[in-house]
Amino acid sequence: MKSSSFARALKTGVNSLLLHKLRSLLTTLGVLFGTASVISMLAIGEGASYEAQEQIKQLGSQNVILRSIKPPEDPNQGERTSRVIVYGLKDEDLKRIEETFPAVKQVVPIRQLHKEMSFRNRAMAARVQATRPLYQELTGRVVWEGRFITQEDERTLNTVCVLGTEVARYLFPLETSLGKRVKVGGDYFKVVGTLAPRVRLSDDPAVPGEDLTGEVFLPYETARKWYGKLQVKRRAGGRDMEEVDLHEIIIEVDHPENVTVVASAAREMLSRFHQKKDYEVVVPLELLLRAERTKEIFNIVLGSIAGISLLVGGIGIMNVMLATVTERTREIGIRRALGAKRRHIVMQFLVETVCLSVGGGLVGVAVGLLIPYIVQEAADMPTIVTPTAPILAFGISAGVGVLFGIYPAWRAADMDPVEALRHE
Amino acid sequence: MNRAVAELIEVERIYRMGAEKVHALDRVSFRVERGEYWSVMGASGSGKSTLLNVMGCLDRPTKGSYRLAERDTGVMDDDELSELRSRKLGFIFQSYNLIPQLDVLENIMVPLFYQDEPPVDGLERAESLARRTGLADRMRHKPSELSGGQQQRVAIARALVNDPELILADEATGNLDSQTAEEILDLFDELWREGKTLVFVTHETHVAARASHVLRMRDGQIEEIEVRERAKEIQGRPATEATC
Ligand SMILES: Nc1ncnc2c1ncn2[C@@H]1O[C@H](COP(=O)(O)OP(=O)(O)O)[C@@H](O)[C@H]1O
Ligand SMILES: [Mg+2]
User: Fold this and answer.
1) Using an 8 Å Cβ cutoff, are A419 and A333 in contact?
2) B86, B97, B100 ranked by CB distance to A339: nearest
3) CB 3.0–4.6 Å: which of A120, A258, B38, B62 could bond B14 by disulfide?
4) Residues in chain A closer than 8 A to B118 (CB atoms)
């Protein structure tokens, strides 16, 4: 087909669409929303899974994390004013892992203390973690100023601490915290370092229901000596005493392929030595795989929804085009009588359908790029528009036009000229 | 003998209505030579329109053969017939059949759009034909802004734009008042005198009176072919004009 005759078909098509502006507009809405939803849902999905995967990666994909969980309370002892609850990971668990587990590179225990951090007249609740120097390496934390806990601190039971960004910023808004003596609960510790900020883990199961934002790190042995195992927690109507050996054990596995082996060994060992399920085993690698699988499912669901909405849009267009063909039967007859070949008629109506769907697709791309932006601004949800998404969506909308345009165009071209001319 | 523009040999067109067969055309044979002005007459339902459709390559004979411009149309496919229509034929219909969204000039040019190799001077041709048919001040008007007579003039201009071998008109004055009809018929006369070949369907005797040949139909068959006085005028013309 010559370019001039295509240009004429395009002009004719656009003109006849402009003749029925409202109808054309309504017809394109299906494809418009289909395209927009593909792009915006992809962007939101991509953003959500990116955040989830980042969080998981921060846990260390080569790590296996064991955590203590407070078991559900017995209802019959709920009214007592004071009690001691013993639960969680034991020192023996740590020892067994260190001594008997295969494929383990390093192990780090963590104890959590619920203490208030204060400096002069500023104070904040903090997540105080007592841990070993290896912690920094295992979790990939970056030292901002000063240093992290050292073997020397452990050996000599130094009363030093390392502050997380939030705590450091809150307690020392104007000056450096290095070398200052801060109060952890009632005791003075010297600040030897601060850590670089990192994305906050939004739903950390280790601290259910507690609003601890900032982190503070103490040498493991120092904390053990100063604070022991028992912790007091105030609650309505009395006090709770909790006895927990370890809140968390991070195991670094020597090779990624051994992660599952170590994880199942840990699960088996813990279930053998714990009567109650007062622990959990978090395997970031498994979470990562699950997140990827979730994303895959999400993409399939998304693809189906997008496919259906584009299908509906396409059917809408086809419906209108069939009506248009019937409406213009006589015109088709005239054109055929004056020498139009079948392909000219096909081209004329196909161009019209593709104009509708491409028009809808273009506006849909614009709307589809706008929605993620609005979502990000308004709902504070991260969104990622990959460059393939608009191209894909636009290509599909054009494809829909061709696909659903073929039948009406064929119907038009296949009309008997004499019959068509007689049509009123 | 003059060259045959259209030649029908034993043409039949049978419509099947369930078990019943309708012979819209029944063994019709005749030839139209260059420069002739044929008038086809007959009662309603006698097969005039069917005949014109066959001659215009819009319909194929059920039996028999039809040759247009010395080519057998029976062996041609749909595309070839379409090309033939856009190059060799001019159609004028009773109800004008202009395309409503196109203006006068665009309507006149439509047959050229569909030629495999459209002429480059299409617009100039359309403009000169519009002037010739008295539409000089209406060139950019839409059909809905024109009177019936003006619309039919556009249709005539459109039928001439491809310089056709044969012009076919089906009751072309049927929708017009007698005054306008006369003007249109005068235009046909003028075309004929220029050497065009015309086949004109009508049921009015005074319209048929202008033709060189009158073909009367009845029940799909040829009842009579009358060669009239005017046919002699064709012989009197210089040969150059007859082969233009
Ligand atoms: N599409 C068709 N289907 C069935 N019969 C038809 C069809 N077209 C025409 N006919 C029949 O063929 C005969 C000739 O019709 P037509 O050529 O239209 O006559 P005229 O133009 O002389 O009035 C009529 O009997 C008509 O009923
Ligand atoms: Mg008729």
Assistant:
1) yes
2) B86
3) B62
4) 4-5
